[in-house]
Recover the amino acids of this structure.
């Protein structure tokens, strides 16, 4: 029982990264019907930018002699990093996706993939081979409830990601821009005729998605403080799986599927021999898709690739 | 058509004119040493250490005016190739260096998944190769031209099992390893074997795994926590060590954690911080409190590149020094590359009690060195302290 | 490059038009003869020429490797390229223009197979000599040919059928492991399976059977993806195939009898140049026939509109199953060859990285096009080898190049074309005279 509860806590933390990254995939998808395969690397870039911002802030605090508390620096870091990284997303949209909007969907996927490789290698070329250790902005204390160990970092990570998801939900449901985005995802052809420019909505979508990835990057840095240029690849592809599993373009679905994927990975490793984790976890996903071929919240229509 | 022809003729004359000065540097007698390292790909840090150690070695040679063979000094050239941490790229790089650059010896590749196929190439072309870091027995097995710079897993596993038993008196252990990477998997198996030989079957109470690039081990560690293990053995690379140790502590693990030579990177402590203080691992050498040549090497490296060299750099350095000794001992360079390679290989096999910075080395028939392992303790200042030395008997 | 319509050249007489004028009347066989001549020159004189030009060795991949490291050698390398490749090709091609056209006309009247065999024999001769000069070249060209097979076979799914399949490395792994297991089990003494069961001399002749077995296993694996593809497609299928890739890789890692993560090594050296070349030619031939058959047209129909295709009596289920299995078969065969070229396989070689590589090759070359796949695979393979001296910057330059190509030609370099061997081999001059 203890183990069960413990693994729920573990799964919540692990799933929130998948969920945050999957949201970015899903948002871009719902507007443009395209997948941004550089998204995993945007996450990586966000993590590195977060590292830079946090180090700079810590340095400033030390220099000026003002004793800034860790949580305050963390909040500033998250805000600044989300802001900076959103420009990375806008840049990717401008360079890799806007020129290809009418091209076959797969071409944009390839440019995304290639931008990702450039981000990775560029990072390696600029920063060198050493891995960075993300500064520990908050002291980690472990609380024990019965046999369950919970750190305040875990609570923070899950809390911040749920909060961000809630904010995103509000934004999409209530704000004018969110409405425009929903309209755009509803009808790609007609909405531009109503005076909503796709050239403003698409960058906005990329920016929000990248900002979420950046937040994920910082939280990831707190939980797993080892940064390397290739950290986004596997996480990105798995979040891609989650984004589709949730149902194409469904924000809620992507978030839920992200958590589900995290839970599956954690629980399979607990119940079964952990050597077989990938085999079993992905067989489960295969089965889910065989019986629910359009994910959880996807509409059951057979879309055509725009080739 | 005529003008085109004229143009071609004049172009050719121009080209010949420009290249006549090229005759000088066309084919000079140089000793080329190939380095096959993972500069891009999964483990760029390993490639960097290899490259830096090689450059330092080249500097030494250049200061000495070249390598001396049979009373004559030859200039040395390094051919550094990137194997992208991929098997086929390592094979391509080796083939290129052997057939195109005509290297005399190859040092590298470092990890077994590249060293096994690349060793095959080197052996087929009868080119001596030393892999400094590959612990897979297959790398050198039945390959007279392939050597190794470090000890093997079948030796390291029992060393660690014995050490834990003697030091702590524990009887129950847990193992956490990467199932998709051959080095951790091999070592985990050997450790399990020798542990069960000492404490009987069932004494490894948790044998958990994950997959390369995973960063969350909470499920496995929770299981280990509940299994009643007294010590955790995790033969992982330095970047994973930091994550495993921190997460274990966050999940309430209080026992000791023991590691293997792959912990021996300078980055282990920078990444892991206070969580790693007081832990033990086996290694090829201990940086803190090193003496003599080892100390000299570490200080030089630190001064030049700004961080303490890890075991890859130290082993690469030793391998290059071995190569140097072998070339010097080979008697004479004939200029016929095949003959020279054979001579170097024979000289390499004959080396006895080579004083390396990672310990004394003598090659066995298979081309594996007989070497001592060092048990290192991470001190409370985060330095690698020499704790104990275990030699094969 | 050489099947330009003569009509277009007469309008302007710029240098481009003059070049076309020069090139137009030369049939494929003329070019092949020219290439053969150039390779012969290199084979017999290359060493002297390179020595005279001050080069350390024969420039192995058109000089990229040496030039990028030592820019001083640029004039020498250029001179070498002109002397060894440029001049002989030009001279032979021009002087043999008439006989070559006659030969082409003669072959044109025979069956396509005969003509193709003659062309292939000439080409192989040139290739063999070219690869014989350096073993490094040989290795690069072998791996490039395997990449062609992979790219072609994924084009059948991703290009002709319009799915986004990510499972190709998985198929390749299945083929590689099956073929290696068979050859190691029967024909080699190794530590995994012990003594050879059959005499080693027989091995080479049984090797094609091992390849086919590898292909069949991969094809059976493809059923895992083909069956869900009845009910879903596009992105959902993409992650089904991605999950398949993860599962295959993880399974192999857990199978101790094929070496687990350590992989299998010391496969016998069966993948020599004639073997790889023959299999590749067969692969191109069969895939080209497949996509030009009724089945191939059905694939395009499914891609453009599945419902309409169904209404037009295309049996979509059968078509999908056959296509997936067919493509997987060739990926498996390519995997088997790959394992015997490297003589080592491990599960790590068949991961996400390989997937990115294959996808890049097929989309760079061009969807729905056999020629495109060949061009894409060759150029990316040779390029990534030729730019080796740039080390880390190689992986910035190649992706940049790919992005530029995608922006300029979003469907890839040569997309939506048909590969017609007969057209290619036609005589070029007679047409103008008649």
């Amino acid at each position: 029982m203890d183990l069960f509860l413990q693994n729920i806590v573990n799964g919540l933390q692990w799933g929130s990264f998948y969920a945050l990254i999957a949201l970015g995939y899903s948002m871009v998808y719902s507007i443009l019907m395209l997948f941004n395969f550089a998204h995993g690397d945007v996450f990586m870039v966000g993590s590195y930018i977060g590292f830079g911002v946090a180090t700079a802030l810590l340095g400033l605090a030390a220099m000026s002699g003002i004793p800034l508390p860790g949580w305050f620096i963390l909040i500033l870091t998250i805000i600044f990093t989300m802001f900076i990284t959103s420009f990375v997303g806008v840049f990717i949209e401008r360079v890799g996706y806007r020129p290809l909007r009418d091209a076959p969907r797969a071409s944009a996927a390839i440019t995304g993939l290639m931008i990702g490789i450039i981000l990775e290698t560029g990072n390696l070329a600029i920063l060198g081979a050493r891995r960075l250790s993300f500064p520990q902005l908050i002291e980690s204390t472990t609380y024990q409830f019965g046999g369950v160990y919970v750190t305040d970092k875990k609570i923070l990570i899950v809390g911040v990601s749920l909060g961000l998801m809630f904010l995103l939900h509000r934004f999409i449901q209530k704000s004018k821009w969110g409405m425009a985005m929903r309209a755009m995802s509803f009808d790609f052809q007609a909405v531009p005729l109503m005076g909503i420019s796709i050239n403003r909505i698409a960058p906005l979508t990329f920016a929000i998605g990248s900002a979420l990835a950046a937040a994920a990057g910082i939280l990831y840095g707190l939980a797993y403080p080892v940064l390397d240029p290739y950290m986004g690849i596997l996480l990105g592809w798995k979040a891609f799986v989650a984004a589709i599993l949730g149902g194409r373009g469904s924000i809620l679905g992507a978030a839920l599927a992200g958590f589900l994927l995290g839970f599956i990975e954690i629980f399979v490793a607990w119940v079964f021999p952990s050597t077989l984790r990938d085999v079993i976890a992905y067989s489960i996903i295969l089965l889910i898709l065989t019986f629910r071929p359009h994910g959880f919240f996807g509409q059951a229509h057979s879309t055509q690739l725009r080739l | 058509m005529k003008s085109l022809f004229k143009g071609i003729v004049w172009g050719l004359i121009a080209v010949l004119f420009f290249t006549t000065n090229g005759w000088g540097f066309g084919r000079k007698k140089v000793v080329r040493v190939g380095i096959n390292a993972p500069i891009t790909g999964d483990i760029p840090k390993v490639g960097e250490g290899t490259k830096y150690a090689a450059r330092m070695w080249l500097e030494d040679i250049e200061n000495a005016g070249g390598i001396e063979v049979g009373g004559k000094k030859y200039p040395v050239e390094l051919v550094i190739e990137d194997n992208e941490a991929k098997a086929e790229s390592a094979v391509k790089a080796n083939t290129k260096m052997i057939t195109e650059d005509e290297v005399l010896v190859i040092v590298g590749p470092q990890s077994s998944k590249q060293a096994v196929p690349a060793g095959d190439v080197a052996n087929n072309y009868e080119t001596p190769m030393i892999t400094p870091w590959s612990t897979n027995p297959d790398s050198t097995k039945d390959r007279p031209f392939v050597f190794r710079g470090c000890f093997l897993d079948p030796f390291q596993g029992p060393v660690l099992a014995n050490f834990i038993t003697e030091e702590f008196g524990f009887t129950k252990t847990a193992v956490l390893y990467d199932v998709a990477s051959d080095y951790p998997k091999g070592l985990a198996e050997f450790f399990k074997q020798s542990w069960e030989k000492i404490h009987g079957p069932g004494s490894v109470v948790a044998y958990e795994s994950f997959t390369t690039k995973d960063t969350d081990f909470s499920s496995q560690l929770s299981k280990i926590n509940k299994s009643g293990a007294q010590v955790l053995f995790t033969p992982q690379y330095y970047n994973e060590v930091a994550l495993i140790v921190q997460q274990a502590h966050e999940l309430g693990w209080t026992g000791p954690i023991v590691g293997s030579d792959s912990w021996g990177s300078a980055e282990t402590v920078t990444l892991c911080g206070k969580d790693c203080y007081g832990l033990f691992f086996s290694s090829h050498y201990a940086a803190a409190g090193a003496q003599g040549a080892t100390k000299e090497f570490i200080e030089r490296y630190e001064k030049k590149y700004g961080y303490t060299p890890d075991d890859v750099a130290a082993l690469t350095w030793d391998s290059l020094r071995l190569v140097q000794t072998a070339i010097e001992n080979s008697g004479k360079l004939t200029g016929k590359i095949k003959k020279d390679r054979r001579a170097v290989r024979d000289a390499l096999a004959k080396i006895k009690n080579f004083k390396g910075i990672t310990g004394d080395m003598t090659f066995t028939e298979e081309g594996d060195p007989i070497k001592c392992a060092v048990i290192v303790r991470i001190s409370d200042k985060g330095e690698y302290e020499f704790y104990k030395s275990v030699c094969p008997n | 490059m050489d099947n330009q319509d003569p009509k277009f050249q007469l309008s302007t007489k710029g240098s481009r038009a003059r070049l076309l004028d020069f090139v137009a009347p030369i049939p494929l066989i003329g070019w092949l003869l020219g290439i053969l001549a150039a390779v012969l020159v290199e084979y017999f004189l290359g060493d002297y020429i390179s020595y005279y030009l001050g080069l350390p060795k024969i420039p192995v991949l058109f000089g990229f490797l040496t030039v990028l490291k030592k820019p001083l050698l640029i004039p020498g390398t250029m001179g070498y390229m002109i002397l060894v490749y440029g001049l002989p090709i030009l001279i032979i091609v021009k002087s043999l223009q008439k006989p070559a056209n006659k030969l082409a006309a003669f072959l044109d009247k025979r069956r396509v197979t005969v003509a193709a065999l003659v062309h292939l024999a000439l080409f192989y001769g040139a290739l063999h000599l070219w690869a014989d000069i350096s073993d490094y070249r040989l290795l690069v060209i072998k791996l490039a040919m395997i990449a062609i097979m992979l790219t072609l076979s994924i084009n059948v799914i991703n290009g002709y059928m319009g799915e986004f399949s990510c499972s190709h490395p998985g198929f390749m792994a299945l083929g590689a492991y099956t073929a290696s297991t068979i050859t190691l089990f029967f024909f080699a003494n190794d530590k995994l399976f012990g003594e050879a069961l059959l005499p080693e001399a027989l091995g080479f002749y049984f090797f094609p059977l091992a390849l086919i077995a590898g292909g069949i296993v991969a094809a059976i694996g493809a059923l895992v993806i083909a069956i869900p593809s009845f009910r879903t497609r596009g992105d959902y299928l993409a992650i089904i195939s991605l999950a398949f890739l993860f599962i295959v890789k993880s399974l192999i890692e857990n199978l101790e009898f094929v070496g687990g993560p350590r992989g299998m090594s010391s496969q016998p050296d069966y993948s020599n140049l004639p073997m790889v070349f023959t299999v590749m030619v067969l692969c191109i031939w069969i895939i080209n026939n497949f996509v030009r058959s009724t089945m191939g047209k059905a694939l395009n129909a499914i891609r453009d509109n599945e419902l309409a295709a169904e209404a037009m009596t295309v049996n979509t289920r059968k078509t999908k199953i056959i296509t997936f299995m067919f493509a997987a078969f060739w990926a498996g065969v390519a995997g088997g060859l790959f394992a015997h070229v490297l003589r080592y396989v491990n599960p790590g070689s068949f991961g996400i990285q390989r997937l990115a590589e294959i996808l890049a090759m097929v989309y760079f070359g061009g969807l729905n096009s056999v020629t495109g796949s060949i061009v894409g695979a060759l150029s990316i393979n040779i390029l990534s080898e030729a730019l080796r001296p740039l080390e880390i910057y190689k992986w910035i330059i190649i992706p940049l190049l790919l992005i530029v190509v995608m922006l300029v030609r979003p469907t890839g370099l040569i997309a939506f074309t048909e590969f017609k061997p007969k057209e290619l081999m036609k005589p070029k001059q007679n047409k103008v005279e008649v």
